[in-house]
Amino acid sequence: MIQEASVLVISDRPEQAAPLVRAIGTVVTCRQIASGSEMPAQRPFLAVVDVTEDEAAATTWLTRLHGLRVPSLQLAPRPVTTRPPTRFLPANAPRMTVLAAVFDLMDGIEAGRERRFDEADRRRIQVGTKAETANHSVTEAFDAARRGAPLSLAAVEAGTEAILEAVSEYGIRTWLEIIGRYDQQLYQHSLSVAGYAAAFGAGLSLARADQMNLARAALLHDIGKSRIPLAILNKPDRLTADEMAVMRTHPSVGADLLEDQGTFDPTLLAVVRHHHEMLDGSGYPDGLSGTEIPDLVRLVTICDIHSALTERRAYRNPLPHEAAHEIMRDMGEKLDTDLLRAYRSAVVLPLTQTPVA
Predict the structure, then answer these.
(1) S-S: 324 plus which of 16, 68, 208, 319, CB 3.0-4.6 Å?
(2) Which residues neighbour 79 within 8 Å (Cβ) at sequence distance 6 or greater?
């Protein structure tokens, strides 16, 4: 149901209601319907429930309006108590008093909208600033790896902190919305996986240091792709078998170049090398299975697969989050089922639920 800037008057006193409708109509579109009518297809932003003879009908309308989150002014001998209106006036209140109440409610609605828009703009700006920090970090890291130069630990830490703060303060939905505007798909994927990891770590109530380790590893998990030829990396179609063999070198290439730098933790190196390993031994590059795969790797693998399935690719459209999760559940023993269940609660469900306005 689409909402429009209009007032709806529901009345069982059409003659008394008509002058009120005309007066409101001088300021905003106002429609009048009988109490036995259906809700119009165009949902109003304010309703006047002038149903004085049938309290059950008044209650039905107020309940319906409450469910649609439409503020209401009730005119009646006494207010409904089971689903109280936003405001109440006696049925015999002077017309000017009713008009004043209607316009006051309209002013409150408009002020609330402005506050929400201001808050939404503020959130986008603040998340955008943190996203720029993280994007600069991952861009700098890939550029350095591509040149064979050492990665800046300070930049990696700054990017990781920015991701944790953004997801913690504003949520994974807002984070994905902001980074989805970036053009470079490889960097966007790294930021996406790191965002999912930040949300997952928070949902698991990990200690702050562990959340940092998880998000940092997720941010750098694909660093080996810096050494993959661009013709393969940016190919718009599915890769051939030979091209896929080259692409599958990126985990070991990435782990080796970070290990050569000598400043990265072994747990992070394990994520970079093994994030494509599967619990049943069917993954690569080393065919690890079961307990050979550390928990941190399992966490990032789930985030990586979910991100890949929900991203737009040249050869397919992105999947909805729940559909992607169903595919991952169908992977059976390849993924950690307990962690996958926890991932759904921490990440997938918040993304599939309608945000509160």
Answers:
(1) 319
(2) 85, 88
Classified as helix, coil or strand, 85 is: coil
**pLDDT tens digits, the chain, 357 residues: what are they?**
455 678 999 999 999 899 999 888 888 899 999 999 988 888 898 999 999 989 889 999 998 888 888 899 999 988 876 667 688 999 999 888 898 889 888 888 777 665 655 566 667 777 888 898 999 999 999 999 999 999 999 999 999 999 999 999 989 999 998 888 776 777 899 999 999 999 999 999 999 999 999 999 999 999 999 999 989 988 888 899 999 999 999 999 999 999 999 999 999 999 999 999 999 999 999 999 999 999 999 999 999 999 999 998 767 789 999 999 999 999 999 999 999 999 999 999 999 875 544
What values do phi and psi take at 29, rounded to 5? -55, 130
**Cα–Cα distance between 172 and 215 in angstroms, integer?**
13
DSSP string, 269-323: HHHHHHTT--TTS--SSS---GGGS-HHHHHHHHHHHHHHHHS-BTTBPPPPHHH
- The region that residue 79 occupies, defined by phi over 0 for left and psi between -120 and 50 for alpha, beta otherwise, is beta
In sequence order, what DSSP letters do the residues of 182-201 get, joined into one string?
Answer: -S-HHHHHHHHHHHHHHHHH
- Kindly list the distances between the CA atom of residue 291 and the CA atoms of 183, 281, 288, 343, in Å, as whole numbers in the listed order: 38, 11, 9, 20
pTM as predicted: 0.68
In angstroms, rounded to a whole number, what is the distance separating the alpha carbons of residues 268 and 283?
Answer: 18
- Looking only at Cα atoms, what is the longest distance across the chain? 86
Helix axes 153-179, 185-203, angle to 10 degrees: 90
DSSP-derived letter for residue 5 is S
Which residues are 225's β-sheet partners? none
- The CA-atom distances, in angstroms, between 197 and each of 99, 154, 210 are 53, 20, 11
